[in-house]
Design brief:
With about 600 residues, this protein is α/β, with parallel strands linked by helices. The protein has 19 helices and 22 strands.
Length: about 600
Amino acid sequence: HFAATLTLSVQPGPGAIFSASSPRLAMKIMWTPARLVARRAGRSCRVAALSTLKKTSGTGKAHEIWRDENEVDNLPKVRRRDGTIAEIANVRGFVDYERNPDPYRDPMERVFDWGEINDDSGGHDKVERTVQAARCMDCGTPFCQTHTGCPINNLIPEFNSLVYQDQWKQALDRLSQTNNFPEFTGRVCPAPCEGACVAGLVDSPVTIKNIEYSIVDRGFEEGWISARIPRTRTGMSVAVVGSGPAGLAAADCLNQSGHKVTVYEREDEIGGLLMYGIPNMKLEKEKVHRRVALLAEEGIEFVPNAHIGVDVDVNVLRANNDAVILAIGATMPRDLPVPGRHGRGIHFAMEFLTQNQKRLLLTKEGNLESGWGSSLGGAAEMVTAEGKQVVVIGGGDTGTDCIGTSMRHRCKSIVNFELMGKPPDARASSNPWPEWPKVFGVDYGHAEVRAVFGKDPREYGVVTTEFVLDAAENVTAVRTADAKLTPQGIEIVDNSTREWPADLVILAMGFVSPEATIASSLGLDLDKRNNIHADYGDYHTNIDGVFAAGDCRRGQSLVVWAIHEGREAAAKCDAFLQKRAKQDVGWGDAARGAWAHHQQLRAA
């Protein structure tokens, strides 16, 4: 209420200032980016707008909030789609409220640093988060948590409902029942759960991914997430080879079952793909360090710089443990064998991303003295996009990460080739709900190129035919032809040859299989794609006591699938160890006694 003489001053733009001269005027004020509205209000006036409408990443604005004159503690009312103003309710939330995902930082701001692309404010405020949780339909059959949605079967309607009720600790408990690392999946998962959301049949899906990481972030802030040290130990030991999401999930579950778990990682940092495969702007490495430290406090032993099969004989490792879980990932990249492939300046995506992340770990700002590149694991020179004309071959998440990294290196130009044609703006009839929607979208890297260069970097229906080299065998251009998909396969369009200038070419065409060293040493069976053969749901290889999980078994996939397989493999490994304990195979009296005591406490 204003009941005094005010000085009038109006300036255009979001920072507009206004006032009016009236000794008796009682006013209520609403601000929007487009206009200022001053409403005359007497004592009987019911509501008044109090909040600024926030801009989001291209999906609209936060819901306007309103309060009664005497309301202070309770949540305010919000404006619904039909224009009415009422308290937040979840009975018809998906009808009453629009989808409003958490915003990313402005592209022209974030390309100048390596911080996370998520908004620094931590996402929506309490009111908007409640509104978004209220959109959950509490479906009779929640496809979001089935095999078409979340691979780890997160209890999504339950934690959405608890967030709506402001029961955050209980929401964290529900989330932790199925997901070992929601702080990872909430940042990097493409959210197949949202693609399968029932609300998506008639409208936009619920912002499940945003709600998930807001729960785990709140858990760390409040101190609800702390070390869970097992009360007893079984006396049995398990070696986990690989510290990516599958290996960490398996180690976490087995450790909580009371087994002694040791995780071996060939790199100098624990985390695998989470550390070196996913760039810092998608997942801050402090979050990985925080989780690894928590797991270590719970009793898991981590051994970095241990290249099993090279530095350490895998057969010795097997002989010294009761079981082994292989979670070594699919690290053999798909190559592009065309003329000129041997030229300098052509690199695999993971080489580019890994070197960049190691650079950032040396200094937070990524600024280093000259000559440092040779210390980064085999490369005589650091792969950098600075000042270069960059060509990224291959789309998907990895291709986008290479685009975003190149932008932060200050590349001169960038183009991204995709073999397939441009996807449609909406689901095709051959891509029905609840399948993952194969539609056109703009990821963070594409948005940054658009902001800086004014053009989307993607070129669709392009096949690379040759790398053009100069006399010193440095790549100078990429020669391509247009391609189209036919029932018989990819067909080259006649007279469609083009040449693209390039100083740096990054191959981001996915991965074909795990490296063969460990499988060969153990005599493991492989499938037709050279992945380690272990049946889905069983995870036991042809070698007794050796299990396989994650990308090394199923092929290149998502972080959330890796966590799922790590959890499932751990359960099968635990069952194997229990069976072995009952059979007393190779056990001494001390080990049998420890296991019996553990089982008694477990039963109690």
